[in-house]
Task: inverse folding
């Protein structure tokens, strides 16, 4: 089956036909479906398109499947800590153009995207939200076209041979909802590992933590499976499946739907989308929305800085970060270091308070190091720097 491209219709024109909120429940036969294919590969643009549709579209009688791809990026959930989930300091060097870090509006765990992923967003009215339905559509599409048998795990992820091929998350509101998931087709596993691999750096937080899973690409099961072909494979399966029940209506039903539409996520098509994108790309959203956390590390004090002590206590540095900014820096100074003349009052360290937990604070720390004369002060300040660089 060839992918049918209907005449491209600007979504603003679609909205003109669906600019009311109908709160009555329509009959299944009265709900039409569309498959929107984003022409952007930019993560912030595609997340903005999701948000724009969620805010503005009426899905009461019109369900939408949005299919999209991204250039390499790490996407964290709304309530996650990027310093805990991603290898922040290395993202810029993993690929030629770096790996972007984005925070989405839905919950759930962290995922890696590149053009070896197909991303799918299922939009419905809140009362028609059905995550299991959406996963069944994807399962049937892969089995119908390739004979590949996927399973739905207890966490409602898609798995193949007990390995994860799709993560899932959702946003439920009034009156709209969406469920989105990735499908690993031929993702670069080395880049994925480098972007997400983290060591325990002593962070304490109530932020949502990702659960690590063994993954597999679909192309490892069948080399014929490619992202480019999955657009039509998944899209047609969605169109031929009834709107509310997982029943196959065949191509007769599919041809009664609104078909495939290439959409261009710009202000011309979606007025106000650029403002949404700007907010999603901002530091305040990606890092500033991080739940409060505390990071602590201990350091062994060199013998030459200690005086007459049999207590081998370490120096402990604790930083409290809220809203992405350093709110406090606490030091536990071992008695041997105090006895040697260090008082624990290093102005360089206290000057970090109020700065973003980022290169901004490190730059300030580096600039201030030149003013330090005491080896003890330099040691303590370097410990603080290591705490920040560890994440």
Result:
């Amino acid at each position: 089956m060839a992918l049918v491209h209907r005449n491209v219709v600007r979504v603003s024109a679609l909205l003109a036909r669906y600019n009311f909120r109908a709160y009555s429940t329509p009959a299944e036969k009265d709900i039409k479906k569309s498959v929107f294919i984003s022409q952007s590969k930019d993560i912030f643009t595609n997340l903005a398109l999701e948000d724009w549709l969620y805010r503005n579209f009426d899905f009461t009688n019109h369900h939408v499947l949005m299919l999209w791809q991204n250039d390499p990026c790490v996407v964290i959930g709304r309530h996650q800590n990027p310093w805990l989930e991603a290898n922040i300091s290395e993202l810029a060097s993993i690929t030629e153009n770096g790996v972007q870090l984005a925070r989405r509006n839905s919950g759930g765990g962290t995922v890696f995207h590149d053009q070896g992923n197909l991303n799918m967003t299922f939009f419905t009215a809140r009362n028609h939200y059905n995550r299991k339905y959406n996963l069944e559509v994807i399962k049937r599409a892969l089995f119908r076209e390739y004979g590949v048998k996927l399973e739905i795990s207890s966490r409602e992820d898609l798995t193949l041979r007990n390995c994860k091929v799709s993560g899932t998350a959702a946003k439920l509101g009034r009156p709209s909802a969406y469920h989105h998931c990735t499908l690993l087709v031929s993702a670069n596993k080395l880049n994925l590992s480098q972007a997400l691999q983290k060591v325990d750096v002593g962070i304490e937080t109530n932020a949502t933590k990702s659960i690590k899973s063994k993954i597999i690409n679909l192309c490892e099961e069948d080399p014929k499976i490619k992202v480019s072909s999955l657009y039509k494979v998944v899209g047609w399966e969605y169109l031929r499946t009834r709107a509310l029940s997982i029943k196959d209506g065949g191509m007769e039903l599919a041809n009664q739907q609104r078909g495939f539409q290439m959409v261009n996520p710009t202000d011309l098509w979606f007025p106000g989308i650029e403002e949404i994108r700007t907010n999603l790309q901002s530091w305040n959203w990606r890092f500033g929305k991080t739940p409060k956390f505390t990071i602590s590390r201990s350091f062994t004090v060199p013998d030459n800085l200690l005086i007459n002590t049999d207590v081998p206590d370490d120096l402990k540095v604790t930083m409290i970060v809220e809203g992405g900014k350093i709110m406090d820096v606490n030091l536990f100074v071992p008695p041997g270091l105090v006895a040697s003349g260090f008082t624990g009052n290093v102005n360089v360290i206290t000057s970090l308070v109020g700065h973003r937990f980022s290169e901004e604070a490190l730059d300030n720390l580096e600039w201030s190091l030149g003013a330090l004369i005491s080896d003890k002060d330099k040691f303590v300040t370097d410990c603080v720097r290591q705490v920040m660089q560890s994440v």
